[in-house]
From TrEMBL:
HTH cro/C1-type domain span: 14-69
Taxonomic superkingdom: Bacteria
Annotated coiled-coil segments of the chain: none
PROSITE patterns: HTH_CROC1
Alphabetized InterPro entries for the sequence: Cro/C1-type_HTH (IPR001387), Lambda_DNA-bd_dom_sf (IPR010982), TPR-like_helical_dom_sf (IPR011990), TransReg_Diox_bact_type (IPR050807)
Entry keyword set: DNA-binding
Organism: Phytoactinopolyspora halotolerans
Protein name: Helix-turn-helix transcriptional regulator
Cross-referenced Pfam families: HTH_31
Statement: the UniProt record of this protein carries the keyword DNA-binding: yes
This protein's GO CC annotations: cytosol
Single annotated GO MF: DNA-binding transcription factor activity
Length: 404
């Protein structure tokens, strides 16, 4: 953990960085347009900040990253308790990336494009199946292979490298490693530029919007998404299901960015545009690992409503949406959103039950989720002894998520 301890709540982290900056509660509250009483309650844990746009505003005032406030994890263990994120970091920050002139390549160990492509496809499948540890464990090997393929400067190599780095950006964003996710997204788009394939570039742009969302740069996410969408739409072939899926997914990512900056009209417009694309597609598909279709649009409508503060709507309508047609990763994200809405409404037993069901399906996705950790921590702090004791489901889940 960089900075404040990972077991601190968001409010405690705000207090930690505020004191380090030498700011009083009154000054910080004024900087974000809030009352001193509001900030005092946040720091004491009497109130929670669930809106990411508010957290991003506080982070800017404190001159720290959004990840510093949310609490970025540094451990993502596989089944053998091996933590592979440091190895991913080493692969992304390999000094040989700095100069092709200074570092000659060893052509005797050049990987086969088809082999790297197959391994990448398997890793994407593991990620979508909820096996986060498996996906992250193979990333160092894939990143090194992708870098070797880039040195050959052929289209197929660039295309595969873009897909590898897209997966890295997506997985790293999921576990709160926002800075590394941005590096990976930048590499994905750089490789996609060289691939001369519009679908590869549009897919990589989705990784870029995801990374920007992770660091709270919602305006930039909207700008990138709209630019990529307009560019791809001008090259869209009639009835092209792959392009239609990428267009729709860019709309969904932008809708979430708009919702997080509390722009309801823009979020609604983008969701309607994605709904139209899903109607044209006519099914729940998974072209380019988008999982795009009518069901994913419905899940993003719920997610956007949560970001807009409509917790009552999410708690009521979220459970009615069946995410079963989609990959496990999307299903788990939906369950986490519903649990957060329950928690917002102090329906703690329903929240814990939903999270436990999700954890059973995909333990690593749940245990390494920043939002799950903060939700469980909030529930644990307000739980009565009978519900939050050592042997309770709340306490045990909190320990597995490292929330306490």
């Amino acid at each position: 953990m960089r900075g404040a301890d990972e077991h601190l709540s968001i409010g405690e982290r705000i207090a930690f960085y505020r004191v380090r900056r030498g700011l009083t509660q009154a000054v910080l509250a004024n900087l974000v347009g809030r009352s001193e009483d509001w900030l005092s309650k946040i720091e004491r844990g009497e109130r929670q900040i669930w809106r990411l746009d508010v957290l991003a505003e506080v982070a800017r005032a404190l001159r720290v990253t959004l990840g510093d406030l949310i609490g970025q994890p540094v451990l993502v263990e596989d089944e053998q308790n091996n933590d592979d994120v440091p190895a991913v970091r080493d692969a992304l920050m390999n000094p040989q990336r700095l100069s092709r002139v200074l570092f000659s390549r060893d052509e005797s160990h050049l990987p086969e494009v088809s082999q790297v492509e197959q391994l990448t496809s398997t890793a994407w499948s593991n990620y979508q199946d909820g096996q986060l540890g498996k996906a992250i464990a193979v990333l160092p090997q894939l990143i090194k292979a992708a870098q070797a393929l880039e040195n050959e400067r052929v289209r197929d190599g660039w295309r595969v490298s873009a897909r590898v780095h897209h997966l890295a950006a997506t997985a790293l964003s999921k576990v709160g490693e926002a800075d590394l996710a941005w590096i990976a997204a930048e590499r994905a788009m750089g490789a996609a530029d060289q691939s001369d394939d519009p679908l590869v570039l549009a897919s990589a742009a989705r990784a870029g919007t995801h990374a920007l969302l992770s660091v709270g740069r919602y305006d930039d996410a909207l700008s990138l998404g709209e630019t990529a969408r307009s560019w791809l739409a001008s090259r869209l072939r009639e009835g092209d299901a792959e392009a239609l899926s990428l267009l729709g997914m860019l709309d969904l990512r932008m809708a979430i960015a708009a919702a997080r900056r509390q722009d309801r009209p823009t979020a609604t417009r983008l969701l309607h545009r994605a709904e139209s694309a899903a109607g044209q597609l006519g099914e729940d598909a998974n072209h380019w690992q988008t999982a795009f279709g009518p069901t994913n649009v419905a899940l993003h409508q719920i997610s956007a409503a949560l970001d807009l503060g409509d917790s009552t709507y999410v708690a009521e309508h979220g459970p009615r949406v069946d995410p079963a047609p989609l990959p496990v990763e999307r299903q788990i994200c939906h369950h986490i959103n519903v649990a957060r809405a329950y928690s917002d409404l102090a329906q703690d037993e329903a929240a814990i039950e939903t999270l436990l069901d999700a954890e059973q399906r995909a333990p690593q996705f749940v245990r390494h989720s920043v939002m799950v950790r903060e939700t469980v921590r909030a529930i644990h702090r307000r739980s009565p002894v009978t519900m939050g004791g050592r042997n309770s489901d709340v306490m045990q889940l909190a320990e597995r998520c490292r929330a306490v």
